[in-house]
Amino acid sequence: MTPSTNSRGFGIVGAGTVAAMHADAIAALPSARLVAVTDVDVSAAEALAASRGAAAERDLDALLARGDVDVVCVCVPSGQHAELGMRAGKAGKHLVVEKPVDVTLEAADRLIRAARAAGVALTVISQHRFDPGLIEARRLIDEGALGRLVLGEASTKWYRSQAYYDSAAWRGTWAMDGGSLLNQGIHYVDLLRWCMGPVAEVTAVCTTQAHQIEAEDTSLAIVRFTSGAVGTIMSSTAAFPGFPQRLEITGTKGTVIIEDGRLVSRAFGTPAQPADSGAQPADSGAQPADSGAQPADRPGAAADPAALDVSGHAAQLADLLAAIDEGRAPAVDGEAGRAALEIVCAVYESSRLGRTVTLRS
Predict the structure, then answer these.
(1) How far apart are CA 148 and CA 234, in angstroms?
(2) Cα–Cα distance measured from residue 324 to residue 10, given in angstroms and rounded to the nearest whole number
């Protein structure tokens, strides 16, 4: 796609699997162009840059010194997100930070403050908020079609081999990555909160079942939302061969079920009537058109981290550019990224302490 004359230049720091998705998302937008890539592995940066017609810079400082880089995508290990994001923000670059925003709330807060002080826009990747099925689900919730929300369930049952974790020394470590919930499950943690509202408390168990890693590969949590609703969060990278991510939202008037971004089921009913009233509950039974997400009979990202569809990333980058033009916050800003991280941190703390943990915000 030929970029427009007023397109913004992007730089990517980190040249791994997720960086290629960012490059493809940038290429999908007429208002964006990839200018430069950098990585501590110079050959990786050169390979990605060459494949996309961009420059490979020797280090982050060189990339940040370029006047044609307006936005920086931070695609390094999670434990480096805040550090490198702060450097880019202080250089006046708008920020796209891969999920999670970082591995600790303290680091997340430093990044959010730095972006605010620098006057740059910050978005934390949660591309599934832009999936058609999630947009439809939020519309139904906002219009009251589900009634008062009572139950929310988020499930990520994926599979990653030991070779995946062995492919880089930082994978599966607490300092740089976290486990299945922080790396893979956080997508649907964010979606659960986006639909159900803030979480008040968490009771959880985390275990390492099938991998030789420092962090957990399986977690299960019961959550209570500030609204009084309850829910569950389940995440694993030990579920062979990998299954669709699933979100279920239930209210007093109905339920919606999303799998891998597709709204696969919705049902609405009236309150139960006396047996002799003759009234029948209304049920839409409608199945929406396919959202374009990975078909259910193909494991996709559930088994292969390189198989993610880039349309969600492209939509989120487009929202960031619109936010810059309009002088507003991006749809998924730093605070949204922090809120999802806070839930994950509470799950880990609850499991470690063996008790319910109350969230502070």
Answers:
(1) 23
(2) 14
